[in-house]
Amino acid sequence: MSSTSRYGAPRGGGGGRGTGIPENIVDVEEKSVESEAVDRSWQEWKAQLKFPPPDSLYITEDVTATTGNLFEDYILKRELLLGIYEKGFETTSPIQEESIPIALFGSDIFARVNNGTGKTVAFCIPALEKIDQANNAIQVVILVPTQELALEASHLCKELGKNLKVQVMVTTDGTSLKDDRMGLDQPVHLLVGTPGRILDFAERGIAILKDCSMLIMDEADRLLSPEFQPIVQQLIHFMPENRQILMFSATCRVTVKDFIDRFLHNPYVIDMTDELPLKGRTQYYTFVEDIQKVDYVETLLSKLMINQSIIFCNSVNRVEYLAKKFKEFGYPCFYIHAKMPQDHCNRVLHDFRNLACRTLVCTDLVMKRIDIQDVNVVINFDIPKNSETYLQRVGRFGRFGHQDFLVMNLITYEDRFDLCRIEKELRTEIKQIQPHYFKPFIGGECNRDDLFKSSVELGE
């Protein structure tokens, strides 16, 4: 009896099509035709997408040193790929290239990776890909140590997954308890938040985690500090035994190692911290009396070519003082600090992210895991006392891997030892620019290229 191929052509006895052609050759031809049709359909679909303008800034070698994988190589859902492309992502960064396929395979991961390398995208994509939209249950939990980080991660998940029917919710100690309870009465697939708030909801039976198959821990070293570790461990017990855990951390302290040994199953370990943490940052300092700092900052901001800038101060009073001086100069700026209401800080950061203002003056509040890609200048009005804070201030803003990023440190005589220690511990070079360099530009034109050139002219 003859059979019919998938295209309706009769198959004669002996496996051919009545033509004597072996069946295996016919199958190869059919698959080739199918593959060509799929490729053609894919290229047509991709050609219709509206990509953001290409990025013309120089990108550093630590980001370009990949095998050139595209996100489409991971066989992601087309709706997710659409969100990825609309964000301007097409090729992967090293941490994305290394971790995404492992996460999609289902293995636990511990990744040591510096800030500003695209790690948030590295865990958001597998989370969105593995969610079953038909199952109205919490399937992924992203734990972060601060509200700012939670807002950032949830915002990115919503943007990447906007074409998926995935419900993303954020809950932290700074959000409304009543609103969060009402939100969890509705279907939620991906929950982002701080450990304390999510554990509270889990213990009350409001957040049901029995279907949560993936736990992501961003800034795991901070999540496993004495403040958070007991809470995280309790939270894990509400999840299935076969859950997948993805951990991302800049360091590997003893508490982190103990946690890995106890809760992760044969984890895939990624270590990318051998790279210089501030590669791509052009850093300068100038010795200046404290009373002169305001004038130097005003000169920098008025003469440099700046997309957006952040100015860090070491105290609330210093932030308010500098913001007041800017107002006297007629120079627009936003400012926030730790004594302001959280809602106000969130609103200011939202407006700053959306380019409502080019300059933000703040304490270290804003550095707590806020990714603002348009920032290309950071000014340390007051230099921090330790290298970790310096790295947080300087290393997490701007587009990862881009070299067009300026850091200016205003140093008093008393700060010199802190500066040397920061250089040594971060294995970085901070070049000196003499204070008198700025004087010729008070009434003239100055741009960042002139500023970079000056360091050469001064023999630095």
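The record above closes out task 2.4. Task 2.5 opens with a second protein, given below.
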Amino acid sequence: MAPKGSSKRKAPNDGSTTHTPTLAEQLSFLHSPRPFKNPDYTKNVNRRTKNLKTVLSQERERERLERERKRQEKEELEQTMDVDGEVRQREAEVEDIPTYSSIEAPPSLLPQRHYCDITGLEAPYTDPRTGLRYHDKSVYELIKGLSASAAKDYLAARGVNPIVR
């Protein structure tokens, strides 16, 4: 075995040889233009980032101011009464503004999903004898072999009044 450094040394590169790009360099998009970036974009240096605590406190403050404004409007309405003694109703109702901490969603318009009582997967089928929901025929074979008490237990776990025929 030859000692370290005793191997032949390469001749210094005098610039006459050209660099052949590797496959990775050929496929690289590093130097290609990026049309999705706006060349005129400048970052706003005056804008500072806010952490979650700041955002939530500002949201609570905005909600408090909104409640205070509504309370004052209600008091003003109570002070201005009609000749008959009835409070004038505002023609345009104030819409509730949804916020991060007080979102209320209406019920879904989609039908409720049914899940298999055995596997927990989506269940398009229901066993007519026991009322258990099942995912596919392999689970149905298992349900056919269940005793009446086991079927009642599965139905009770789902929260259904177990009536097994």
